[in-house]
Design brief:
Layout lengths: L7 H19 L1 H4 L7 H6 L9 H7 L12 H14 L3 H25 L5 H10 L4 H5 L4 H23 L2 H15 L8 H12 L9 H28 L11 H20 L22 H15 L1 H19 L24 H18 L9 H24 L4 H11 L4 H13 L3 H11 L12 H11 L3 H14 L4 H13 L3 H14 L4 H13 L3 H14 L4 H15 L2 H13 L4 H8 L6
């Protein structure tokens, strides 16, 4: 049996198999989970997953984002491919995320091993089982994180091999993987800077050989990074409300976020308890001097590293710089929709944590042995300590993964750890609203309202509470909530739409039509308002305006079967056009609404 472990290749294979077993073992509870948070929008209800020509639109029509997707065609295509092969399966989606996380861990292990980083196996294993990565792995939507992470590491390794061997095919490979990385998740745009720092650290003979040719080779990376960044900023401002008033932070507040974030994440990597889906949102008061201590600490640690630069300071300084660069997109300098809930998130530390783990393990190796070419001084002490650490982290990961079983368990776990997490209360309210437990829903929405910023979209807890009041026929309270949102935010077309639906229930049709008109003045490309106004016209037997509105809704949202079904009826009423009606009913049936089409087939009004 010992022969199996003698050769270098055998040890490598057994190491990868052990990593595979460890990864799938600690994340096993995730394979039994359903969906959480915005998985419903990204993964379940994305119309391009099932509509004809969906794959083409994913790549060529970035504006068709379903209100959720920025332009991440590779990640979205991976979901599309799943749906074509085996349909909607939570278990398989989770297993793919876990497998991708294993692939990232294996690339990390093999990459560090290739460039002679001591204890590469330990870094790979710690990355695989560390609980701070649960949010990236157990959340289906964060496929973009693990998929981008894999392409990021492959691109980085390819770039290092190119600089080391001067083989141009590795440059082409690296550039291709970089393009895949940024089309999986935008934050990968920082790779060119990280790659140059890695070359400076891992390839000593290239350290001072930067020429104009090297800058020219970086230019394609930088152009891709710039274009993708501009596109993402446009999506954040246009579709995700990142330009709304809740993001009006001044320069000093943004500096405070930027200086607190790295230390916060460092603390969570070293002591990952508690881990919370929504961490408390920091109160940023630049006048409070204690809040500037992290910035002073950053300057102090930089000074010490410069002082010891030719000993151990160079490695630490390069690591610090790489860590800050990898965190830069989410350090608060740019608006991010997540900032409505918190200024930090576990999934933002997925790749930056590699730098921390590598520098810490490398530092322990150097300081423990006193030599850079020797691993740890006493394996008799080191191996048991690392085994205990591995078991503790694995246990914490298993425990944290169980919180991600479904939206309710995750939101309850969040409010238990952070009682001010308005987003989790809002999520719980939405769950009970769907369950038609309206009293409980109102209770949670009411808890969310005090901490919630005024939102630009439909997820405002005030709007949600108004919806619940309508179902309970508490019309005065519902109208008060809708009016409150419209008064404070007159451009919230969702609020006008909800108030219009409320007016229809009260049979105040003229007021309802006014609100639908107002919603469409604000957003003339919003299909639900056309559909609802069309249904109002239909209720009032205004068939031509109804036909026009429903046709416009179909142009904007061709995946909604009910629109075709209703328009088919109008084709008969208005134009006696059985052929057009059959076409609409057939389209409705392809989208799951088949009653009219099957009836027409029975009567032989429509051909097969």
């Amino acid at each position: 049996m010992s022969l199996l472990f003698r050769s270098r290749q055998s040890r490598l294979i057994w190491g990868c198999l052990a990593l595979l077993v460890a990864t799938f073992s600690v994340y096993y509870p995730a394979s039994q989970a359903s969906f959480i948070w915005d998985d419903e929008g990204y993964f379940i209800n994305d119309p391009l997953m099932t509509t004809e020509g969906g794959f083409k639109k994913i790549w060529l029509s970035p504006e068709e984002n379903n209100g959720y997707w920025p332009y991440l065609p590779i990640t979205r295509s991976s979901f599309w491919l799943e749906r074509q092969i085996w349909g909607l399966s939570f278990a398989k989606a989770h297993l793919i995320n876990i497998f991708l996380h294993f692939c990232v861990s294996m690339c990390l292990y093999l990459g560090l091993r290739r460039f002679s980083i001591r204890a590469a196996w330990l870094i790979g294993f710690l990355f695989a089982v560390h609980p701070i990565h649960v949010q990236s792995v157990a959340w289906i939507t964060e496929r973009k994180n693990v998929l981008s992470g894999l392409f990021f590491l492959l691109s980085l390794i390819g770039y290092l091999l190119f600089k080391d061997r001067k083989t141009f095919r590795w440059y082409v490979f690296s550039l291709g993987m970089f393009l895949c990385a940024v089309l999986s998740k935008t934050s990968a745009v920082i790779l060119p800077a990280v790659a140059e720092l890695a070359c400076f650290w891992l390839l000593p003979r290239n350290r001072w050989s930067v020429r104009m040719r090297d800058w020219g080779l970086l230019l394609p990376f930088l152009v891709i990074a710039l274009l993708v960044s501009l596109l993402r900023i446009k999506f954040e401002l246009t579709y995700f409300g990142a330009g709304a008033s809740q993001f009006d932070l001044d320069v000093l507040q943004r500096i405070l976020i930027a200086t607190h974030s790295p230390f916060f994440y460092l603390g969570k990597i070293i002591f990952p308890e508690p881990l919370i889906f929504f961490y408390p949102r920091w109160k940023l008061d630049p006048a409070q001097l204690s809040l500037w201590l992290p910035l002073l600490s950053l300057f102090g640690s930089t000074g010490i590293c410069l002082w010891k630069f030719h000993q151990w300071g160079r490695s630490i300084l390069l690591g610090m710089l790489a860590y800050l660069i990898m965190l830069f997109p989410v350090m608060g300098f740019f608006n991010n929709a997540w900032h409505r809930f918190s200024f930090v998130a576990d999934h933002w530390i997925y790749l930056p944590s590699i730098v921390v783990m590598t520098i810490v393990i490398h530092g322990v190796s150097v300081f423990g042995s006193g030599k850079t070419n020797q691993a740890f001084p006493s394996e008799k002490v080191f191996v048991p300590v690392m085994l205990v650490l591995f078991l503790i982290l694995s246990g914490l990961t298993w425990k944290q993964t169980k919180a991600y079983q479904n939206a309710e368990t995750l939101n309850m776990d969040t409010v238990n750890k952070n009682p001010d997490a308005w987003g989790a209360y809002n999520g719980l309210g939405s769950i009970y609203l769907k369950k038609q437990d309206y009293e409980r829903a109102i209770e949670f929405f009411s808890k969310a309202i005090p901490g919630a910023p005024l939102l630009s979209g439909e997820s405002s807890p005030v709007l949600n509470r108004g919806r619940a009041y309508v179902q309970l026929k508490h019309f005065d309270q519902a109208l008060a909530d809708f009016d409150h949102v419209i008064r404070l935010q007159p451009d919230n077309y969702h609020a006008y739409n909800e108030r219009a639906l409320f007016y229809i229930k009260k049979k105040q049709y003229a007021l309802a039509e006014q609100d639908f008109d107002k919603a469409l003045q604000i957003n003339q490309h919003w299909a639900p308002a056309y559909q609802n106004r069309g249904n109002l016209h239909l209720l009032l037997k205004r068939y031509f305006p109804a036909f026009k509105d429903l046709s416009r809704a179909i142009e904007l949202k061709p995946e909604i079967g009910e629109l075709y079904n209703t328009r088919g009826v109008l084709q008969v009423i208005l134009f006696s056009n059985r052929k057009a009606a059959c076409s609409d009913w057939k389209s409705a049936c392809q989208r799951g609404i088949c009653q009219n089409y099957e009836l027409a087939l029975k009567k032989k009004d429509c051909g097969p």
